[in-house]
TrEMBL record:
The keyword Transmembrane helix applies. One of its GO terms (molecular function) is 3',5'-cyclic-nucleotide phosphodiesterase activity. The chain crosses the membrane at residues 428-452. It comes from Polarella glacialis (Dinoflagellate). This is Phosphodiesterase.
Length: 453
């Protein structure tokens, strides 16, 4: 509603969505009139009591807690281990065994996809991106579409090289990094597929854009060391020196991906893209170099995952959403971008191209921070992993006598950790999802956020 601020408008939209779900499914949700999803817990509130609601009416999820004292050293008391004991429920007792691979892949491209279980499956054999990529491209008939539209002239060879490339990327993700490892890449790849399938995004992109989005998701954190950009800068690490403190890890991820691709012909799918692509739906357009287009798109999307760019990205996304809303209110055909005008040279087509690449980059950014929008059990497992990774960085900062980065102090009590997590959700995750999902007219992830927080 135009006269409401973003928080009030978001709350109204969420309450309407939750009310609709209650009427359809008869689900019991918290009283929206007396509880605000934006309020922080009051001082002195028991951390355990706050988290008990996550396992109410869910006996399997409520069984046991993770015992993590042996995983990480204690510091300044037992705050960290106590936090995770009550925050991270034991999921090992859920069910009698691991779901089969085919069952897990049925959820790929959906918000409920369990990338952790998928990546740990023996059938995946340590190559989640290769397996997931093969499934997503096959389920969308991508190879035939790329061939028919002449985006790719040797589809069989192209498909084989893409598979080899994803397998190589799999092994460049560090298995010893708790959060930013291969499972996270698979989760982002699946979530990116979900965004690409929304009516708005699919209406402004073509099959090559779709493929490019999946590849960007696969490579977006490759080689992540388990420490963030702030740590790289504070320690004057080699990556910080190489990239001059600008989007340090993001620069490294995309550079490593292209180095891996180009060092071996078996992984170099980029060279099979035409340098003189002619759009059959726009014969007047000049031939385009798809190799340059895809390289530029991958670079833009991966660099756009830098959280330092979040505020500017959100502001531009709000402008686009407002333009779309004005178009809908004026009953104008909702066609903000001409999907056939990807490679032209005139100003209008160039603006459309820039806007499309921005939307794709924002979809990847949203996918990258989407774990709070996942179903409860998945959200808790991802939270456990990210806390372990952050605390390990804080331990190293303490050892080096450096200031401890935000969210990295394991000595904080559980309520403080909850405050920090909730602040991140409210400050970053909620707003980008509210604006983006208002654009694509789909509020399910926000309903998850409302029910969880």
């Amino acid at each position: 509603e135009p006269n409401k601020g973003p928080v009030e408008a978001a709350r109204a939209a969420l309450e309407a969505a939750v009310s609709e779900l209650r009427s359809i499914h008869g689900t019991q949700t918290k009283d929206t009139a007396s509880s605000s999803s934006y309020d922080l817990p009051v001082e002195g509130t028991s951390w355990k009591l706050m988290l008990e609601s996550y396992t109410d009416n869910d006996p399997e999820a409520a069984e046991g807690h993770h015992m993590l004292e042996q995983k990480s050293p204690k510091r300044n008391g037992s705050g960290a281990s106590a936090t995770l004991k009550v925050f991270c429920r034991s999921f090992e007792s859920m069910g009698t065994g691991m779901p089969c691979l085919s069952d897990m892949l049925q959820e790929a491209g959906q918000l409920g996809f369990d990338a952790i279980a998928f990546s740990e499956s023996a059938e995946v054999a340590g190559q989640p991106l290769r397996v997931l990529g093969a499934h997503l491209t096959r389920s969308t008939d991508m190879w035939s579409s790329l061939r028919d539209l002449r985006f790719v002239l040797e589809p069989d060879e192209f498909q084989g090289r893409v598979s080899n490339f994803l397998g190589a990327i799999d092994f460049l993700y560090r298995a010893d990094v708790p959060y930013h490892g291969p499972a996270h890449a698979a989760d982002v790849m699946s979530t990116m597929e979900w965004f690409l399938q929304t009516p708005y995004v699919s209406s402004i992109t073509n099959h090559m854009d779709h493929f490019m989005g999946l590849m960007a998701a696969a490579i977006h954190d490759v080689g992540h060391p388990g420490t963030n950009n702030m740590f790289q800068s504070k320690t004057l690490g080699p990556l910080a020196l190489r990239y001059n403190d600008k989007s340090i890890l993001e620069m490294m991820h995309v550079a490593l991906a292209f180095e891996t691709m180009l060092q071996n012909e078996a992984t170099n799918w980029l060279e099979l893209l035409p340098c003189d692509f002619q759009d059959s739906e726009d014969p007047a357009a000049k031939p385009a170099n798809l190799q340059h287009y895809v390289r530029r798109g991958l670079i833009d999307m991966v660099l756009g995952t830098d959280m330092a760019k979040h505020a500017k990205k959100l502001a531009r996304l709000q402008d686009i959403a407002q333009e779309e809303e004005r178009g809908r209110m004026e009953n104008v055909c909702n066609r903000p971008l001409d999907r056939t005008a990807n490679f032209g040279q005139d100003q209008k087509k160039q603006e459309s191209l820039e806007r499309k690449l921005f939307v794709l980059g924002t979809a990847l950014h949203a996918s990258d921070i989407s774990t709070p929008c996942k179903p409860r059990q998945l959200m808790l497992r991802w939270t456990e992993r990210v806390l372990l990774e952050f605390w390990a960085q804080g331990d190293e900062e303490l050892r080096l006598q450096l200031p401890i980065s935000p969210l990295c102090d394991r000595s904080l009590d559980a309520v403080s950790v909850f405050h920090c997590c909730l602040l991140f959700v409210c400050s970053f995750v909620f707003y980008v999802f509210f604006v983006f999902l208002n654009l694509v007219c789909f509020l399910l992830p926000l309903v998850f956020l409302y029910l969880l927080y």
